[in-house]
Specification:
Blueprint (H helix, E strand, L loop, with lengths): L2 H28 L5 E2 L4 E2 L8 H6 L1 H12 L4 H11 L5 E2 L5 E2 L46 E3 L2 E4 L2 E4 L5 H17 L4 E7 L3 H4 L11 H10 L6 E3 L1 H7 L15 H15 L10 E8 L2 H6 L6 H5 L2 E7 L4 E6 L8 E3 L24 E6 L6 E6 L16 E5 L14 H7 L4 E7 L6 H10 L2
Parallel strand pairs: 8-9, 8-17, 15-16, 15-17
Antiparallel strand pairs: 1-2, 3-4, 5-6, 6-7, 10-11, 12-13, 12-14, 14-16
Length: 448
Amino acid sequence: MNTGKRKLWQFLSVSSVLLCVIFFGVWSFLDADQEISALEKRTLAQVPDFSLATLFAGDFTRDYESYYADNFPRRDGFITLSYALNHVYYFDFGQNTVIVGRREVGNGEGANAASPPTEDDPLTVPAEPPVAPLPKLIFPTEDEVIQKDSILLIGDRAVEIPYTVPDRVTRYAAAINLTQTLMPGRRVISLIIPNGAEFYSPEKFHSGPYSQKDMITLAYSQMDPAVFTVDAYTRLREKADQYLYFRTDHHWTARGAYQAYFAYCESLGFKPVPLESFSTGRYENFVGSMYNWTSNLPQSKQLLDHPDYVEYFVPLVESTAAYYFSTGMTAPYPIPVVDTELPDDTANKYLCFIRGDTPLCQIITANSNGKKCIVFKESYGNAFIPFLTSHYDEIYVVDPRLFNTASTPAFNLPSFVNEHDINDIVFINYSFIPNNSAYIAMIENMLN
């Protein structure tokens, strides 16, 4: 290629790039911003307030980058395309068996990457004293199940199958213990929550390395005696014939979260508020993540044809809430603790609980008992948080996935707890988290 043609090619290439930048910039300016991403199940960043102080501190620039990343034109379409391009094809070998590749979800929700323990690497669980037998559950048989990766489709229900990786469980317990060591004057509380697979799948998928009860027992046995370990498992097991878990989504319902709250109160010395004391409402026609993750299977139509509903319980104590993008807690975004007025076109109705996954949420209640707590959670914690408003003056809610990366603000747990004079430090996670090395690293990073 001669010099003239090369220069022309370079000019056209640079011009094309500049035109694309200008086009998307204008489009972004004119396009209406979203407040919620139903696809990602979280609240999106909004335009930050400008001031010279935030500009020179670097907060405005960082917050504006977060805002633009969350409001890029046709963002959900690009995310959907990315999911499709990264999809691992499956092969159907008969009516009830689906085999696909395995992938790890880095934010701690979805799947594990390591292979399950084998008979040569059994899960060792400390012996427990005998307890009274729990009510018998009727489990489906294996020939009633269609398996896609770590997901089982059972009629009009789908569940995720976690399994135990002992080394990761040990590391998770060590992170909780380090929290207690660094802050000996505070109460550190651990709730590990089983998901629906423990109660609604064939026995094979909740025994041996798949037993979530054994995994929770293993984790708690390795925690410092000073740590309050909450047995939410037994309460959930006793009530498993109720509507505790969605059928089309991987979360629990507010009724499920209430059972963990009840166990929490028993462990901490609080008096739990009876469920019938709350005023309640519900959103109909909720089809969630389990359908989205299996929608390429014809059998998943049963999920679509039998949607869930999202029930909520309104806090008894007057409360106000706002979320923030950094620990500086500037530019609050007010939100309801329980949203009883979600727009009709909101697909992800689970967002009614504290507006989904936000970096840092502060709830101030009308209590005056001097108690404050901070809760570290993924999205399972969202339905649990509103029940705590009966017992604390202030509640801080942190999603570790949204801090301490190259593109997110820093969060130092001991500094934040000391600065805000917090009494209780709560870790509530569902069963995938103690086996997810990426999420465990996020907790370790907060401890510096």
